[in-house]
Specification:
The chain contains five helices and no strands. It is mainly alpha-helical. It is elongated, with a radius of gyration of 18 Å.
């Protein structure tokens, strides 16, 4: 076990984030055109009331992928750099990534808040396992 096994889920989540960004622009630009919103007008007010919920959900998800996942990236990189990769770290990393992808799919499609919340909590637990496992290696 080594850095490659630890960093592969990092790259998968980064790739997923780029996919969501493409999906965001693929829906937001046509929605803005349909609503006759000039791009400059986006600076002057909230787009939420002017574009469809389905489009906003994708934008919100992209923002969510830039909130907690950077902590995941930092933790995974730290584990790989310190050479502390083990099965707990790898399984937790893959669980985190898988749960975040499913979270995205829920938010971007049918958007049941309690389903999203459960997936977020489970992914947070997976991230917590990664952190605690590493802290035990460092200070245990």
């Amino acid at each position: 076990m080594g850095a490659v096994e630890m960093l592969t889920p990092v790259m998968v989540l980064a790739g997923w984030t780029i996919f969501i960004l493409i999906w965001l622009y693929g829906t937001r630009i046509p929605a803005m055109r349909a609503a006759k919103i000039h791009p400059q007008a986006a600076l002057e007010g909230d787009l939420s009331s002017k574009i469809p919920l389905k489009v906003r959900q994708i934008a919100d998800n992209y923002n969510h992928l830039l909130e907690q996942p950077p902590l995941f990236y930092a933790v995974a990189l730290a584990i790989a750099v310190m050479g502390h990769v083990d099965m707990i770290a790898i399984y937790s990393a893959w669980a985190y990534v898988g749960l975040r992808i499913v979270h995205s799919l829920v938010q971007c499609t049918y958007h049941k808040v309690m389903h999203r919340w459960a997936l977020f909590m489970l992914s947070s637990i997976a991230l917590g396992v990664m952190v605690v496992n590493e802290l035990l290696k460092l200070f245990g």
